[in-house]
Specification:
With about 90 residues, the protein is an alpha+beta fold. The protein is built from two helices and four strands. It has a two-stranded antiparallel ribbon.
Length: about 90
């Protein structure tokens, strides 16, 4: 599992938060895992210039007919985003 000791905090709408003149950060293991899961599931390949593979890229499923194959595809993309680099 990846060791992350500190992360940037995002508010409930995905906005960066500031405190004491600097970016607000989190440093508890539970909050760090929660923040990383949210970021990986909500992010798409185009969000990162380096084509980060640790993103679910669910926007690629928008506009497709909802069926079991799409649901399984979404599940697979989420699992890959959370496990590809040893995060979970």
């Amino acid at each position: 599992m990846i060791q992350i000791n500190k992360d940037v905090y995002f508010g409930k709408y995905g906005d960066l938060q500031f405190g004491t003149g600097d970016l607000r950060t989190i440093n508890t293991p539970t909050e760090i895992v929660k923040q990383n899961v949210i970021d990986r599931v909500r992010s798409s390949m185009s969000d990162y210039l380096n084509e980060n593979p640790a993103v679910a890229n669910l926007q690629s499923l928008i506009g497709r007919t909802d069926d079991l194959a799409i649901e399984r595809g979404a599940e697979k993309q989420i699992k890959q985003a959370l496990t590809i680099d040893g995060f979970l």
